[in-house]
What does this fold into?
Amino acid sequence: MEIEIGRGKKARRAYGFDDIAIVPSRRTRDPDDVDITWKLGDYRFELPLLASAMDGVVSPETAGIIGKLGGLAVLNLEGIWCRYEDADAELERIAQLPKDVATREMQAIYQQPLIPELIAQRIREIKAHGVVAAASLTPQKVREHFELALDAGLDILVVQGTVVSAEHVSLDESRPPLNLKEFCREVPVPVVVGGCASYHTGLHLMRTGAAGVLVGVGPGAACTTRGVLGIGVPQATAIADVAAARSQHMLETGEYCQVIADGGMRTGGDVAKAIACGADAVMVGSPLARAYEAPGHGYHWGMATFHPTLPRGARVQTVQNGSLQDILTGPARENDGTFNLMGALKTSMATTGYRDIAEFNRAELMIAPSLQTEGKLLQTAQGVGMGARGSSVSAHAPSNSNGAAEKALQEA
It folds into this structure.
């Protein structure tokens, strides 16, 4: 339904994860009977989860850990790991930068040119762990570097930018735009492309022959695209729209393209809602940046944070309070939904009666503006459970005073 913004201008209403709820069905299941595996190309994964191609999240080491847990980690081939031999020294330097100079100093750090030998070396380091190797390049750089990665054993290529379209127009003849339709079909490994946030863009990306499409423009914890550019679609609506494009694409071609929700998820409930909206898998960054093993030393930033002329991201601090295993598969020892994300997904599917991801894509949803607050007065006042709003993962979460909690107890 369109709403009139003003004379001659209408807009659709869109929804984020906090605006919706999953409705229980007529049956429930045993969580042990729920199947959350998914496929990307010829590869099957136990967990429908990708780790974001961000320097503070994925290193060759964490890629190995996540792969052995059943997920897929994507290394940023244009990041610190392929610019510096001693990448950890630069990552530690970034973590120690004062807040007021962090962005400009990071711009200088990322001006160091890519070292082709390091691209191959990092892929080999991931492969040495015995896991599937995935890595990302931007549309501007992918033709220049992808063959090096393939020769080193790359299994899955991600072509990723803030917004990626199947039709890029440029009058600069010295920089011919990437023809995604030709490129995806000539690369001998599965190609994932994105981000996008609408039905038509998603459909056009699927028609390139991509194995998967990333959905999300600006929802990430470290991303400022929505503020800097004013571009973005709340994730629940974006995922549902691109999932509809997947259905249309399958009608046209008989080929199934994976829809991957990219960003905006803090808790197991968010992950479950992303799948219920139509995603086949999720890509997360900030939840994993909190891990003890994360290379960001307690900090997290996006791929466009260090853009030389128009940064679109912030370096945000997290609290390193669990292992990658704790965060992904548990056990959880916090009650705010930020641990055991995959266990929460399985339990959500079991509680609502769905057997696998394809079935859960068809779950009934409801607009629920009171979802986060109804009956949660004490939790909100005391900053626990749902009232914590993920405060266990934020270094600067506001604390609730004892007075506020006492007042809430009196009112209750």
